[in-house]
Amino acid sequence: MQLSPAARRLRDYVAIPSVNPMGRADIDSTIAGERRYAEHVQTELQQLGVDAAVIGRGARASVVAQLQVQDAVDTLLVASHLDTVPVDGMTIPPFDPRIRDGRLYGRGACDTKAGMAALMAALEHVLARGRLRRNLIVVGEADEEMSSAGVHDVIAHLEGSAIDWALATEPTGMQLVSCHKGRIALQLGARGLAHHSSSPDRGQNAILPLARAALALADLHGELRSQSDPRLGSATLAVTMINGGHAPNIVPDRALLIADRRTLPGETVEVVRGEIERALERAGLTGQVAIEHAHNEKNALGTPDDHPAVDACQRALRACGLPSAIGSAPFATDAGPLAAHGIASVVLGPGDIAQAHTADEFVSLDQVDAMQAVFERLLAGEDAV
Predict the structure, then answer these.
(1) Mind listing the pLDDT tens digit for each residue in 211-233?
(2) Residue ranges covered by each domain of the chain
(3) CATH match of 5-180+300-379 with 3.40.630.10
(4) Which residues contact 6 (CB under 8 A, 6 or more apart)?
(5) CATH match of 182-298 with 3.30.70.360
(6) pTM value surpassing 0.85
(7) Among 99, 136, 294, 326, which residue's beta carbon has the most beta carbons within 10 A?
């Protein structure tokens, strides 16, 4: 079977493990981290005559390259994250890419090595013909699947660079996305007094106030439905983990609750922290349960539909015979943090989000090739008025 240039690159990328350990100590070091993949992309860029830098710490690395042209239409940053989720429970070989029925299978095929493969194939084609008309910043960032540390490293590396807009490649089924929710990670804790469970009244059970806090957060989730966006719907709050206790016969002196808060554009950590503190106060839990951690993992995205970034992508999509309707996404991406740094951003890429992170992850090669065609139009400036 003869593969397209993008499909050949994708096959090579999937074969390179780049698992985000996501704080787990049990992830095999031979598959953890993005550095191997970053260095591979760096080598490919250098073979195209493009200087590229690998930045980051240890195995957690990103790759960045900048291309400048005379009389550029504008400066575009394309970000395609390098990390994948772990491979637990996969029913296919995660790093031995297989092709059947027009699909390429393997970890990261959909999310989101297909986007990088399409970009690199398009860049090679455009450079070979001397048709690059945009200043381009190629970014393969680490840690998108967790805390977006990689994209913040990239922004620091590019300090002082003028960037007009950014495109994050994520599996949107080739639908242009201009808005999505953000994510704030929360940890609440309660402390008590340990004692033998045969005399529980002599102890102070940390789990009990935390259980009441979980119910208070569930009530708050219901209240958030009043904060509705016409396209994104309401903000949400979900309790996702609870942990407490040391042994079956000891009253627990410590308990933790993890919650996931999905935000709308404009919501901040301070706003979210305040609403949770008020919910705890209403439940009579002030002083018993504390917010120990509130971190903005991903900013929400809300790029206006009439922004030039949106228009450029719509023109490129239409030129390739593809639908150009603007949509929203239920998931958060690195487009949010990029926008928070003042870079207008959109999301567009091959693959179906329903296949991301799955036991038999795959991507349709037709969509990968379609994304290459869109990138060729964008890099050549053929979307310009």
Answers:
(1) 999 999 999 999 998 878 999 99
(2) 5-180+300-379, 182-298
(3) yes
(4) 114, 117, 118, 120, 121, 122, 365, 368, 369, 371, 372
(5) yes
(6) yes
(7) 136
